[in-house]
Write a structure and sequence with these properties.
Oligomer: single chain
Shape: elongated
Radius of gyration: 23 Å
Number of helices: 7
Number of strands: 0
Structural class: mainly alpha
Order of helices and strands: HHHHHHH
Strand content: under 5%
Mean pLDDT: 80
Helix content: over 70%
Largest sheet: none
Length: about 160
């Protein structure tokens, strides 16, 4: 195969991967934030005011019923929804899994084509695990930042209580 065609094909694959990542992270965050603010201040479409206890109960019941296929297949200790929330990542578990599959497939094809058919499965597994490693690292960084700020916050609260506030 011609080197020009090969470079164009690889460039197209990289561009497609970058666009897929960009579209996954571009969300309707403002819309969700506005909906939550409207719910908190009582501006809902029906015009009725719900108490905060009713809103919490509805949220808890909707979270109980909302088990995706991914949540059902993974064990409880490997809850990707919880890990994503702890990492403060704006991505769905299915999108994370899809990125892993896409990266693994591209690495498999590139490995077979460019490197060696015997090395390609290891490249595919490594690229499949890549998004999950990114998530774990982002979660660890955020939890470490939280843990480093916790003593200062506790000290501030203790001083405020001692001062009589």
């Amino acid at each position: 195969m011609s080197p020009i065609i090969l470079s164009l094909l690889i460039g197209a694959l990289v561009l497609g991967a970058v666009l897929a990542v960009a579209f996954a992270f571009v969300g309707k965050e403002e819309g969700r934030a506005n909906q939550r603010l409207d719910a908190l201040i009582g501006r809902s479409g029906r015009g009725t005011h719900e108490s905060s206890a009713d809103m919490l109960l509805k949220q808890a019941m909707s979270e109980v019923d909302r088990k995706t296929i991914m949540d059902q297949l993974t064990p409880e200790w490997m809850n990707f929804s919880k890990m994503i929330e702890q990492a403060d990542a704006n991505i769905k578990p299915s999108a994370l899994f899809g990125f892993g599959l896409a990266a693994g497939f591209v690495a498999l094809i590139a490995g077979i084509w460019l490197v060696n058919p015997y090395v390609a499965p290891f490249m595919a597994i490594g690229c499949f695990v890549g998004p999950f490693i990114w998530l774990v690292m982002k979660r660890k960084k955020r939890l470490n930042a939280f843990a480093s700020q916790m003593p200062d916050a506790m000290e501030l609260i203790a001083r405020a209580l001692r001062a009589g506030h």
